Every structure is written in C-alpha cells, then in structure tokens.
Amino acid sequence: MAEKMLAVMKKKRASGAELVTVDIPRINPDEVLVKVKATSICGTDAHIYNWDEWAQSRIHPPMIFGHEFAGEVVQVGDQVKRIKVGDYISAETHIPCGHCYQCLTGRQHICQNLKILGVDTDGCFAQYVRIPEVCAWRTDRNIPPELASVQEPFGNATYSVMESDVSAKVITIMGDGPIACFATAIARAVGAAKIFGVGEFPYRVNLLKKMGADVALSILTHDTVEEIMDATSGEGVDVVLEMTGAQKAIDDGFKILKKGGTFTAFGIPPSKIEFDLSNNVIFKGAKIIGINGRLMFETWFQLSNLLKFKKVDISPVITHKMPLKDFYKGMEAVISSKREVGKVVFFPEEK
C-alpha cells in the first residue's frame, strides 16, 4: 500500500480548501482503515468551505473534512472484532464516547461527548480514512459506491420520516435539498397519503416531484401557505418535516400544521429565531420532534432495507459524479446561487 494519499484539506482559517498530498493515516487499536471508493458533499462541508460563522466557531484547521463515504476496509486494529479486512462499508459519522448517560441508555446518536467525522476529526475527502469500529456499517455489495456513499444523509431522511409516523397522512416537506428529496421518496415508500413539497430553486423543486411529491411548489412563484391550506380545506397537514432551518420555512410550517399535528425539526437555523410558542405549539396542541443524526443503529437497518429491497430509488438525486481532483468544480456547483445540483459524488480513484 502506498504511503501517501490525495486529500482535500482545510489548511487555514479562511474560505476555500486545498488539494494536498499527505500521509495515509495510522489507525488506533479500535479503528479501521478504509480505502474510499466514493465520497459526497454535505451542506456541512459547504459551511466549512465557505468558512461561515458556524465553521469559524467549530473547525480547527489544518484538517481533512468530508464525512459521507463508502469504501473497503484495508486494515483493522488489534482490538477490532466485528469488522474484517475486505468488508464494504459506509460510516455512522457520529462518534460516541460509549460511557455517558445517553450512550448507556441507548441514545448514542446524542452522546454527551459526541464527535463528528470530518468536523471534529479528519474526514473522508481523501483516498483513505480511519474510523472507529463502532461507526463502521457493513453495506450490501449490490449497492454501488455512489449510492452507498450517501447512506448517512439518507439516514437523516429515514430517521425524520420514520419518527414522524407519516403513513396514511397528509404531509408537507419544507426544503428542496438532497435530504428533503430523500425524505420525499421515503415518505412515499412508507405510505404517506399525500405529499406537498415546498422548495425554492426550480431545478430542485423538480427533483422533489421526481422523488414522489404529489405537489411541488416553489416559494418564488407560489403562495405556498395559501395553496396548501386551500388544498386541505383550511385544516392544514398532519405532519410537517422542516429541513431548511430558515425562519420563513419554520413560520410557514407551523401555519400549515393542523391542530394536533406533528412538526419534525431537522433543518438547523443559522442563528437564533423568533418563535411564537403560544400559537404555534400550546394552543395548537402540536407535537415537536427534534432530529439529530440517525438512531444507532435502528435507522441503519431501516435505510438498508429500503435500498436493498429497492423500495426507494435515490439515483435521481445523484446529479454530479467526478474524480476527487475536481473537488473545486463540485463544490462550486453546490454553492452556486442557482442550486442546479442534487448530490455531488467524488471518486478518489479516477475511472
């Protein structure tokens, strides 16, 4: 095995990133070394690349970022028991401590001492990545690397939908990013009665339609609150899945939520928001669910079944595929003002 690898590194406390050649990481006894077959861009990576307020407060350069990937295990530590060399894996990117109250009561995904791959540790925008064995998830070899690489965000969508109990219900998904698109397809697969998709960018609103939304609306051209309320005879929808974190989307989501309905919060606001607790929650009798990551590992079994048994086709969301050396081109597509992109997937080894 070579001693050096190509990687994308955040070297300075400034916008941008650099393609570098660095040493292949050495693993600890409880870790595995993975040869990355495919890796994809997340919104978090765009925050790191742009060096916004959140990134400045959280990221400590120099570091390799990226956290969504699929690959093959090439080395295992002395204490590793479950994972073997040659296993085809993806990764749960929440790294739990294993000994806090949350971990000991089956809630590792909200570990008190949680670390995140590619945020708090070196990530997978590279030819090789090391991860703790506890985070390695064996993947069906029939799932190609470009699809296997997005299982982590697909898991966000799976957790959001499954916690929301959408079967036979009228729902609205707020957002048009890849996770909202995934959630649309999952909601369709598990029996939502009617799905309203609300987005902004025309290209992505069209993706919502492709992924199964009965009605896909852009806030640029529609009064989405009025149209959804009219379509539901003034009652509103049973479930709102909010996946943007935008103040307007949150406000509109509660306006269209039926009394006694469920509001599932996944999108992260860029800063504090104003919120009408009395009218949005108390008087409405609303149930609010907070989504952080994925259940470890119930969500992974669910998402694996959806993919393995072809209940959901996520391939339309993979809109850009390119070698890792074209990282800048892929990132520019993600942060473009037109947002004519779904998921960008990189291949560290050119095909």
- Give the structural class: alpha/beta
Which runs of at least 5 residues are low in confidence (pLDDT < 50)?
none
Number of domains: 2
Q: How many helices in DSSP terms?
A: 12
**CATH class division of the largest domain:** Alpha Beta
Estimate the global geometry from the Cα principal axes.
Answer: globular
Radius of gyration: 20 Å
- Total strands: the figure is 18
CATH superfamily of the largest domain: Medium-chain alcohol dehydrogenases, catalytic domain
**Average pLDDT number:** 97
Oligomer: single chain
Q: H/E element string?
A: EEEHHEEEEHEEEHHEHEHEHEHEHEHEHE
In terms of DSSP E residues, the strand content is 25-35%
First-residue to last-residue Cα separation = 19 Å
CATH topology of the largest domain: Quinone Oxidoreductase, Chain A, domain 1
Structure description:
Strands 3, 5, 6, 9, 10, 17 and 18 form a seven-stranded mixed sheet that branches. Strands 13-12-11-14-15-16 form a six-stranded parallel sheet, with helices on both faces. Strands 2-1-4 form a three-stranded antiparallel sheet, with no helix packed on it. The model has no long low-confidence stretch (mean pLDDT 97). The longest helix has 14 residues, at 151-164. The protein is an alpha/beta fold and 351 residues long. The protein folds into two domains: 4-150 and 314-347, Quinone Oxidoreductase, Chain A, domain 1 (Alpha-Beta Complex), CATH 3.90.180.10; 156-290, NAD(P)-binding Rossmann-like Domain (Rossmann fold), CATH 3.40.50.720. It has helices spanning 43-50, 53-58, 101-104, 145-148, 151-164, 178-189, 202-210, 224-231, 247-256, 277-282, 298-308, 327-335; strands at 4-10, 18-23, 31-40, 63-64, 68-76, 88-91, 94-95, 115-116, 128-132, 136-138, 170-174, 194-199, 215-218, 237-242, 257-265, 287-290, 318-323, 343-347.
